[in-house]
């Protein structure tokens, strides 16, 4: 079993990385392999609603989004981390998440179906809960079990050393990792015991115009 930790910060080794590192170390201690994926610092364009992904199962903008989707199916769980900008996830990470999950949905890839996921956010002071809500909506839409901790999954600080000094935040990261490991092991045990996945229905899409 392996978990992919996605760093949505422009700073590869900043505060978000520090939080994800605490999770990675704890997961490894629980026998779960981890890898990291940094979305980089180049600008990431938003979705163009061009429907290319529905036809080709890949995004028309061939950048870090397709690079991520090329490897995502290899992983059993995901942790998406991002800094908070104006009480929301950073712009690059928002574009990344929009296109990753839209491409997966419209391309019929089912990369994330029933795979545990968690969101982690980093902020100097506030805006964290709004950013968490934003990230968790992607997981709900993709039918991903959301992994909790003892508190909301956030750390505070302007520099990595300040994040490491956030004792409660670091504990939240460790508890999150152990809960992720437990859920992955339970899922594997169920699979080995013959527990079937939930029956799926054809998607119904409606609007409110009559």
Q: What's this model, at a glance?
A:
The protein is an alpha/beta fold. Strands 1, 2, 3, 4, 5 and 6 form a 6-stranded mixed beta sheet that branches.
Element layout with pairings:
Elements: E1 2-7, H1 15-29, E2 33-38, H2 52-56, H3 64-72, E3 77-85, E4 88-89, H4 91-106, E5 117-123, H5 128-141, E6 154-156, H6 160-165, H7 167-192
Parallel strand pairs: 1-2, 1-3, 3-5, 5-6
Antiparallel strand pairs: 3-4
Helix pairs in contact: 1-7, 3-4
As a percent range, the share of helical residues equals 40-55%
For the termini, the CA-CA separation is 47 Å
Order of helices and strands: EHEHHEEHEHEHH
Structural classification: alpha/beta
The counted number of beta strands is 6
Low-confidence stretches: none
Strand content: 15-25%
Rg result: 17 Å
Number of helices, counting only DSSP H or I runs of 4 residues or more: 7
> What is the typical, i.e. mean, pLDDT?
96
Report on the biggest sheet.
Answer: 6 strands, mixed
Overall outline: globular
């Amino acid at each position: 079993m392996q978990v992919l930790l996605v760093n949505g910060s422009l700073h590869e080794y900043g505060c978000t990385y520090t939080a994800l590192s605490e999770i990675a170390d704890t997961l490894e201690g629980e026998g779960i392999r981890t890898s990291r994926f940094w979305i980089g610092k180049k600008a990431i364009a938003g979705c163009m609603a061009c429907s290319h992904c529905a036809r080709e199962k890949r995004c028309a903008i061939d950048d870090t989004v397709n690079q991520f989707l090329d490897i995502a199916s290899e992983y059993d769980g995901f942790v998406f981390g991002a800094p908070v900008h104006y009480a929301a996830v950073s712009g690059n990470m928002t574009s990344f998440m929009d296109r990753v999950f839209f491409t997966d949905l419209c391309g019929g890839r089912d990369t994330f179906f029933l795979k545990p996921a968690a969101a982690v956010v980093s902020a100097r002071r506030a805006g964290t809960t709004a950013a968490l809500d934003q990230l968790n909506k992607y997981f709900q839409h993709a039918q991903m079990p959301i992994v909790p901790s003892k508190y909301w999954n956030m750390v505070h600080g302007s520099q990595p050393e300040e994040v490491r000094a956030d004792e409660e935040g670091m504990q939240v990261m460790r508890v999150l990792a152990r809960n992720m490991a437990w859920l992955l092991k339970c899922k594997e045990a169920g699979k080995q015991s013959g527990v079937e996945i939930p029956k799926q229905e054809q998607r119904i899409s409606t609007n409110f115009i009559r």
